[in-house]
Design a protein that fits this description.
The chain is an alpha+beta fold and 166 residues long. It folds into two domains: 39 residues, no CATH class; 124 residues, P-loop containing nucleotide triphosphate hydrolases (Rossmann fold, 3-Layer(aba) Sandwich), CATH 3.40.50.300. It has six helices and seven strands, in the order βββααβαβαββαα. The chain has a three-stranded antiparallel β-sheet with strand order 1-2-3. It has a two-stranded parallel ribbon with strand order 4-5. A hairpin with a 2-residue loop joins strand 1 and strand 2. Helix 2 crosses helix 3, helix 3 packs parallel to helix 6 and helix 5 packs across helix 6. It is elongated.
Length: 166
């Protein structure tokens, strides 16, 4: 099964080359490959970029930015993406915008952003503040004992994965 395909179309050569290159993907089994720019959501584009960046982890861009990488995923898939990001962060600077605690827990530095009355504020979250934020992301409540315990468990898993990746 082909998931990713390149389509080359010859054209009159200029300073950018002599071919038009198009990436096509078949995101679901049994579907034909279609142009990424026409069918991929923001989250899918971020996950495709993560996969391609991982293939070329030895070189390329020094900084990679992922926005909406958590769109349409959760739980186990979120942990898998978080683990990939943690491994990628050993060779690249990785910036991720996420609403998924299973991804946020893998950050070396977690920055919380709040928007109130049209103004956004950002602050680095450490220690108990980080656990509380992950807990809020998990349960939607400020002080759930179960969510706090789960947040600490996620941070422990993330630390184990980061230690293995180093």
């Amino acid at each position: 099964m082909q998931i990713l395909r390149l389509q080359l179309e010859p054209r009159e050569p200029d300073a950018t080359g002599g071919d038009d290159v198009r990436f096509l993907i078949a995101p679901n089994p049994g579907e034909p490959a279609k142009p990424i720019d026409q069918i991929a959501s923001g989250g899918e584009l971020s996950r495709i970029m993560l996969a391609l960046t991982g293939l070329g982890a030895g070189g390329g861009a020094g900084t990679v930015v992922f926005d909406e990488i958590d769109a349409g995923i959760g739980g186990e898939a979120g942990l898998a993406v978080g683990r990939r990001l943690a491994r990628l962060a050993t060779t690249h600077q990785v910036l991720v915008v996420t609403h998924l605690p299973q991804i946020a827990c893998f950050a070396d530095q977690h920055i919380g952003v709040r928007k109130r009355d049209g103004a956004a504020t950002a602050r680095v979250l450490e220690g108990a503040d980080r656990v509380a934020e992950l807990s809020r992301m998990l349960a939607g409540m400020e002080a759930s004992e179960h969510a706090l315990s789960h947040a600490e468990e996620l941070l422990g898993e993330a630390e184990r994965v980061r230690a293995e990746a180093r």
